[in-house]
Amino acid sequence: MLKDKDMQLSIYSVLYNKIPENHKLRVLKDEVDFSFINAALEKTYCKYYGRPAKEPELMVKLLVLQYLYNLSDVQVVEDASLNLAFMYFLGINPEDDLPHPSLLTKFRKKKLEGNLTVDEVIVEIVRQCVDKGILEGSGISIDSTHTEANTFKCTAERVMKRLAKKIFKTVEKECGEVQEEINQEIPNYKEIEDHKEAKTTMKSYLEETIQKVEETVTLESTPKVRKLLENAKTIVSDPKFMEQKGVRSIVDQEARVGHKSKISHFFGYKTEFMLTTEDRFITAVHVGNGAYVDGSQFNELLELTKKSGVNIEKVFGDKAYFRKPILDKIKEAEAKAYIPVSEMAYKIDEELFGYNKDSDEWFCVQGNHTVRKSHKKTKKREAYRYYFEKENCRNCPLRDVCISGKTVGKVMEVGINTPEFYGYSQEQKKDEFKEEYRKRACQEWKNGEMKNFHGLGRARGYGLKSMTLQAKLTALAVNLKRIAAILSSKKGGKSVSITIFLNFSIKKD
Q1: Where along the chain do its domains lie?
Q2: How far apart (Å, rounded) are the C-alpha atoms in residues 402 and 289?
Q3: Disulfide-capable partner of 409 in 124, 140, 393, 504 (CB 3.0 to 4.6 Å)?
């Protein structure tokens, strides 16, 4: 049962007068409206029966404190029982009891993601900032950052060894013993010098073990064994597993190896988020495994940002986002793209060739130009072929540089999007682009803030769902931190609501 909120202040509430007026938690309590959380989750509670439940608003605020100060479930409840600023932010009296730490886990699993997503909370908080004029910028930046898994990556051999041990342990637990027919002598793969042979040996052993268990154990009466065997068969049958591109840990089977650079790797997850460049508010978040390709969820992130009411006029990103679908989506949103040209998408040597979009012609450095073009389409690629004037190419002093073989005139084959990309490349040479693009640096600063001060550098739990919740709650926490910083810096930081509260407390005392 969701009880009505008791707004009665106790005699001890006068202690809240000791909290500085510009304290970030005091500012957040008075300026940000969290009441929409109770309204959104009201139908998930029984209205008339059952034990009175802790308010969803209170639970979400506890989670905010947890990620704002990088605390565990136990630590945040302990600190909230002692810290006056925490109590004031939570909206409770100093003598009120707080929920048991275990309720935070239940709330996250049963209420938060199932009925009210953190995305909706982020969108609503950002919308409030837009409505109040706290957020005024018109530029957004997109980037991704990596998070290390809460475990270490194993070789395929070690994963299979651990799977075998887990099978034996589960069989013994559910059946009382491991049948003699099942061979429990796991091969010592470390003694096998050839890495490929070691993997093959372990795979054969694990497959034989699975088959023997299926033959000797009644799977209908041992659900845990059946589930474990199905999982093991799924892992081993994946071609990527043997190439060490699939599962690398049985503790966290959704984490993957990702690339920070050509020589630097990590094992875990990628968090991609949109950020307002002027005010540094995170407007949308997506989490994928370590192998996630940047920009895959660009459309969804942009739509969430629009939903929050942010005025989008400029979109910043690095070279990974220089792709036709993303550029088209930005144009559709009537915004300007500030994304450097990627060499993978645009490979024209501009020292030798230039393009005129009005006449749809390419010009070479010697003044020759194309006289016709044709369209070429294969299963793998779609392109245009531009043909230069043959006679001009025949006597050109740079003929050996750009023409090979017996071809008389230069034939220039470019990707279907190259003429359009040429326009972007010319824009990026302007000082205006270079000056504006500096604003993207705020993204790197925000990455560091979330990792160094709010625990995003390493996963708290296991699995994609847990990591997604962690990343989004971290984004919510740093947004609220930013709101408090902006409001605290303004003159006349004491709000009307605080004044009323102080007057009421003094009179009551």
Answers
A1: 11-116+494-508, 156-242, 353-417
A2: 43
A3: 393
